[in-house]
Amino acid sequence: MKPLNRINDFVVSFATINGSGSASANNLFARVVFRMGVPVSPKNIFPSNIQGLPTWYEVRVNENGYVGRRGDVDLMVAVNGQTLRRDYDSVVSGGYFVYDSSRPLPEDFQREDVVTIGIPMTRLVTEAIDNTKMRPLLRNIVYVGGLAALLDMELDLFVDALHRQYQKNERLAEPNIRALELGYAYARKQYPDTCQLKVQPRDRIGDGIMMDGNTAMALGAIYGGATVVGWYPITPSTSIIEAFGNYTQEFRLEESGHCKAAIVQAEDELAAIGIVIGAAWNGARAFTATSGPGISLMAEFLGLAYFAEIPAVVIDVQRAGPSTGMPTRTQQSDILACAYASHGDTKHPLLFPGDPRECFEMTAAAFDYADRLQTPVIVMSDLDLGMNDHFSPPLSWDPERRYDRGKVLDARALDALTERWGRYRDIDGDGICFRTYPGTHPEKGVYFTRGTSHDEYSAYTEDSATYIRNMERLLKKWETAAKLLPKPEITLAGEDPRLGVIFYGSTTPVAHEVIDHIQQRGCTVNSMRIRAFPFQEEVWDFIRAHDHVVVIEQNRDGQMRTLLINEGDLSPQKLLSVVRYDGLPVTSRQLITAMEKTLAAHGLLVPATSTATGDPS
Amino acid sequence: MTFFRPSFRHPDLQPNAAGFHRRDYEGGISTLCAGCGHDSICNAIIDACFELALPPHRIAKLSGIGCSSKTPAYFLGRSHGFNSVHGRMPSIATGANMANRDLIYLGVSGDGDTASIGMGQFVHAARRNLNMTYIVMNNGCYGLTKGQFSATADKGSRSKQGNVNLLESIDLCELAIQLGAGFVARSFSGDKAQLVPLIKAGLSHHGLSFIDVISPCVTFNNNPESTKSYHWVREHSEATGTFDFVPFRQTITADYADDTVQEVELHDGSVIYLHKHPDGPDITDRRQAIDNLEDHKAQGVIITGVLYLNPDSRDTHDILNTSKRPLNSLTEADLCPGAAPLEAVNAAHR
User: Fold this and answer.
1) What's the ipTM?
2) Per-residue pLDDT tens digits for B224-277
3) Does A263 touch chain B (CB under 8 A)?
4) Are A500 and A550 a contacting pair, CB within 8 Å?
5) From CA A410, how far away is CA A420, in angstroms rounded?
6) Which of A279, A394, A451 sits opposite B96 (nearest CB)?
7) Which domain, by its residues, includes B234?
8) How many domains does the structure of chain A reveal?
9) Dist CA A440 CA A446 (whole Å)
10) B9 part of a folded domain
């Protein structure tokens, strides 16, 4: 078996134990690839546990810019005894298996189609490092050094990266560099010309960045002017709040040391959303971040905010359900729960960012939408998008951009009114009424906010006609929302009307790759990335224009497909479902297989023999 | 219930120090049952706000769900109000307070709304020591759903239908003291002379002022064997001692030579003078306050008045060290870092 021979196009997986500090070492590797100008995508596949269980960190290197997860492993760095067998078996034929040779491999590890590379990581560290506490951490750096040698990467780039990482604590850089050099020297000496996978410098990054979606969302909330946060810890959303807290220390401190934001860790998600609604009712921009179980708990309050028309920004970093599900695994399975959260006739605008730049942009914009529409807006992220680093265009902020605080009457505007003001009177015909903040005016603009049925002046009513009038106006507001929210991103490959593909969120990079692949097989694929709910005319036009439309998503039941069929009154036969929902970031290889199968079944593609093995380029 | 309120007011009625008349603090007509204790509490709230000369539009009144939570419609008609969802008033109040620390927050709730469905929210609002006045209109039963026992119903209390409550009762005041509320009091809707100054003191206190007001449900829980009936409470209650509340704007002229008077100055400069029994507890001591409650309970006596007071209490804003300016007054210029810092953010992610 010929060993794999590839430049800037392969997958490395690090099999380690969680809580051992390996993630930061693995990230060091990914970052250096990135700094060499080669697109890269790390995926941290970790258990719902703090210490001691198996974890994998998968890095895809791809100079063609396919930064979705590919699937399969070309080079395995195996340092977890618990999973050694499984890791060994998972390497593709022709791949490489790097292990800690301080202990010999079991005798039955005899694959002939895999190149085995032993680096005595533990022994090297034990011999060279006196500090016993640091040894386990530095062992991780040893294999990074070894990889640098095997993949022909310049050691200096790693040394620079370590200096940057330990800027504030230079003392720590030195032993790390030492460990790095140990691994590098060993692999170079023992395994010259062994590995035919190489990373070579390119210029394919431009001004791009590597950032996780949660950090980008925290910044979006800072830039969007959020001042009140109600939250309850839940994986995978917690790091949004932590990052927001850290950024308030950088961007929101007054000279006196007081903070221009209040972050309240609530007793549960019910209180978290209550805090957001109370604050927004009182004129502050407020948000919460949560995941599926939190959305379930917030449902009642979301209905109140819908009916009483109070802005709220909710970020849902989705994870694998139902129930507690797989808390550290990813999914797009809260689509319906969020779209229609709460009892009675309710629906909520949703935003679907596809990369960290959009996480930033859409989170900031969500505050404008919520204020303008006076309703909760839910930004739909997921664990993959939120917690993994993604290759993304840089964040930017238009200096001309201004907050849209929506229809709010201040004291002067109240004084200027010539007719009686009513909190729920639709003056402009867009379904959106004028509101006031408490404390604005000594005599005018006071109203009583309630979740009970109310008339135009916010007085309690059980009058059927008044109730219907209000519910109909909320529908008109819904139409206004569709016009306001981000339009879908449509890519037309040609005139052929047979096949359209719809996808959204973290599926984006993989979907692009899959579509390229299908096109190379001679099938024209037009695509649409949905960016918001309610759906706009463009969404319906795209669907109408195609004979078949495949909806790719990461849940079992095809929730986006259901939502489209329901909202657009579409024929279910027209929308085909391709789903992956195993909890891991969706891979292009899985998706290509699934797509080919679905397309072949509908006569849109000649059945493939075996195409889903290589890079479509 | 009354369907009509005369608009006529006696011409000699005097405005308060801020120029408002009592009617400026009134609300809509009550739709509660005739004789409901809650209506008396509403009137006490109106009197307290009037006497304190609070600008009505600077008060925000909040509630959950239930008979008690309907009452914000019946007082302070010139204040913004928020009738939220069942048991969730404290979180709405928390958010509202975080958004604007300069308003006065008055939350009303019931025993079902607070001691059952909203227990978690109540507990944590107290723990945060949110700067608000939290009044529970406590009738020991669910009025709107026709009289089921609530979690504050006393063990052994008998309802109108003859059912006996077999479960332990929750003492919200004792909980509030344990949890860090800075001002804790209990009163009776039938004792306006005590209730009005209590509410005034609560409104002046910095931090969470919790006032549990026993308020008989005349329709479902006012039979003589009910421990939340007018009759029972009148027979079995005892005030901690009379007290005077002196708002900070007023000059103190009274001469309290009596050494049983305990003087407690509040955050805003108001003073409470408590006329203690010579061997009564020090109500600024948490342990003594709880012992006092338990001692009376053991004797079958409902103790009313100020039960606990921490004049140095720090509210949520103090704890979080938030801006002294209301957060809802901050503008884009205060909040948005602008384009330039993003360059550094991007650079750190390359």
Assistant:
1) 0.95
2) 889 999 888 888 888 876 677 776 655 444 444 455 667 778 778 888 777 666
3) yes
4) yes
5) 15
6) A279
7) 22-320
8) 4
9) 9
10) no
